[in-house]
Structures are given as structure tokens and as C-alpha cells.
Amino acid sequence: QVQLVEFGGGLVQAGGSLRLSCAASGLTFSSYAMGWFRQAPGKEREFVAAISWGGGSTYYGDSVKGRFTISRDNAKNTVYLQMNSLKPEDTAAYYCAAGRIYSDLRAGQGMDYWGKGTLVTVSS
Q1: What is the spatial distance between Cα 64 and Cα 47, in angstroms, rounded to a whole number?
Q2: Residue 46, class by beta-carbon neighbours within 10 Å (0-12 exposed, 13-18 middle, 19+ buried)?
Q3: What is the pLDDT of residues 37-55, one digit of tens each?
């Protein structure tokens, strides 16, 4: 019954921006830390960003720090990922995930639910 659905992926030129959204249903959204992960073709899954229950704490992977921003709107049961200054190496399927413990999610652990992903392609 729990669903996480990502929106906003697409094709963008290097240097451009995209905003991804993840809408959650079937869970008490404010009780979950949220995160974004990505996986490029032929590569392992990579941690991108995490945000605590109320949005007061955030954490980013080194490869996106300074370019991406995670945020959440608990009234809308939605978490966002604003991606700026996109690079071809950002090309991947992006997945949102929910976990009870922020510190675990920040470490790439404790994900209870996953979305099905949205594809981001950054061209040269």
C-alpha cells in the first residue's frame, strides 16, 4: 500500500537544471527520513542526499555537494531534489527512499521503501 512515485526526470543539457519530486502515500510521511539515490548504467547504486523528518538536517554525497539541494514539504507528502549545474556524469536513474532513522539513511542504510525511479540524462 505504501507508494513512492518520482517525477521530473528527463533530458537536459550540461549546465542546466532539473527538479525531481517524490510523492509518498500510505505512510506517515513526517515520521520518515527521506533520501535520494542514483544508479548509472553498469555502475553500483550511489547515495545522493538525505533529509531528516522535519527537514532540519540534510546531507549530501561528495559528488553532488554544492550543486544539489534536497527539501521536503510534509503537508504535501513530497520530497524534492533540485539539481543545478548538471554534468554528464549525473546521468542515472534517480530513486527516492524512506527510512525511519535519519542517521542510517544518511549512511545509505535502513531504507524501508523505494520508488521505482525516474531517468535523468545529461547531454554534452
Answers
A1: 10
A2: middle
A3: 999 999 999 999 999 999 9
Bridge partner list, 77: none
List CB contacts of 33: < 8 A, sequence separation 6 or more.
Answer: 50, 51, 52, 53, 98, 99, 100, 101, 102, 105, 106
Please tell me the distance from the alpha carbon of residue 67 to that of residue 45, in angstroms, as a whole number: 19
- Measured CA to CA, the distance from residue 48 to residue 71 in angstroms comes to 13
What distances in angstroms separate CA 39 from CA 3, 21, 52, 118, 121, one per listed residue? 20, 17, 22, 11, 12
Nearest Cα residue to 31 out of 106, 93, 121, 112: 112
How far apart are alpha carbons 96 and 5 in whole angstroms? 8
- Quick: pLDDT tens for 51-110: 999 999 999 999 999 999 999 999 999 999 999 999 999 999 999 999 999 999 999 999
- 71: which 3 cell numbers? 527539501
Distance separating alpha carbons of residues 23 and 73, to the nearest angstrom: 10
CB 48 within 8 A of CB 61: yes
